[in-house]
Specification:
Length: 164
């Protein structure tokens, strides 16, 4: 299935939103699907600003889970993550964007490729969409996104940047 979708959970959207970099998702993946629970989570804070961002992002599409019972099999996850996994199974997703450790573990056990916000930044640099990952990492931290020192060092190394 050549046009298998990329499906996102809330955290990568919420992390890139205040940076004004949702465009990276468009430039990397052309189209991104989110289930209704993720849409609701994303709009739960900063509703007006985020709603405006979504209106400017027609490539970010809300996609219903065909059989909502599929989400119930993913116990131990929040509703958004459960719907992401259900939608991914139904649509045979090529990649999931998810930061939560438990959700990523579930996704990998189900055989999905997973990356998170930081992985998106590294990929964006490799694709020439960012000159450097480090400023975005610092901006994420300034916006309350926790990144441990070893993760930062590993990411900078993976991106071909030295830690400052």
């Amino acid at each position: 299935m050549p046009n298998r979708p990329v499906i996102a959970n809330n955290t990568p959207l919420a992390a890139l939103s205040p940076l004004g970099r949702l465009d990276l998702l468009r430039d990397l993946f052309d189209e991104l699907l989110i289930p209704p629970a993720v849409h609701a989570e994303f709009l739960a804070t900063e509703h007006d600003r985020r709603q405006a961002q979504l209106q400017e992002a027609p490539w970010l599409k809300i996609a219903d889970v065909i059989d909502p019972r599929h989400a119930m099999f993913n116990t131990g996850l929040d509703r958004g993550e459960a719907e992401v996994l259900a939608l991914a199974a139904e649509r045979q997703a090529r990649l999931l964007l998810m930061d939560d450790r438990r959700g990523r573990r579930f996704a990998r056990r189900l055989g999905f490729r997973v990356t998170g916000t930081v992985g998106v930044l590294v990929l964006a640099k490799k694709e020439g969409l960012l000159e450097s990952v480090e400023p975005s990492l610092l901006e994420l931290q300034e916006n309350g996104f926790y990144l441990g020192p070893s993760l930062i060092a590993n990411v900078l190394s993976a991106a071909g940047e030295s830690e400052s």
